[in-house]
């Protein structure tokens, strides 16, 4: 489809010359070539001009794909780190809650025991009216 388009390497393209107003994103056939030219000005020796341009586009496309994979993996690692941090925080909060509940349980048991002992002492001290 775009194989007949040849980019003049001596022509300087404006930074947003491939801006597509319909999508709002750059969508040029030669985007990868421009990216590659910024990285490697010297074409590989032994290749004709016709062979260099498609190779440059392929190299740039592969580089862009690799960069995309690296960014995606970095995002995955960041998310895994964040999830692990959240898991640890939740685990610590659960331990704290368990300790509070255990303390409250002991307080209630101690209070119930004190009330029970007080009731038992009263019943032993007071003689029954039938005796």
From TrEMBL:
Q: Where is the composition biased (Polar residues)?
A: 1-21
What InterPro entries does the database record attribute to this sequence?
ASIL1/2-like
Q: Where is this region: Disordered?
A: 1-22
Query: Mind telling me what this protein is named?
Result: Uncharacterized protein
- Give the species: Acer yangbiense
Q: What is the lineage of its organism?
A: Eukaryota, Viridiplantae, Streptophyta, Embryophyta, Tracheophyta
């Amino acid at each position: 489809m775009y194989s007949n388009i040849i980019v003049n390497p001596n022509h300087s393209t404006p930074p947003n010359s491939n801006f597509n107003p319909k999508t709002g994103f750059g969508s040029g056939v030669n985007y990868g070539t421009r990216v590659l030219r910024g990285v490697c000005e010297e074409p590989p020796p032994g290749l004709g001009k016709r062979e260099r341009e498609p190779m440059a586009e392929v190299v740039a496309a592969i580089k862009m794909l690799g960069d995309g994979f690296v960014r995606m993996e970095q995002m995955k690692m960041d998310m895994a780190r964040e999830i692990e941090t959240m898991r640890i925080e939740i685990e610590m909060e659960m331990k704290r809650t368990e300790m509070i509940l255990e303390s409250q349980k002991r307080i209630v048991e101690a209070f119930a025991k004190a009330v029970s002992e007080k009731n038992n002492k009263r019943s032993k001290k007071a003689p029954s009216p039938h005796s």
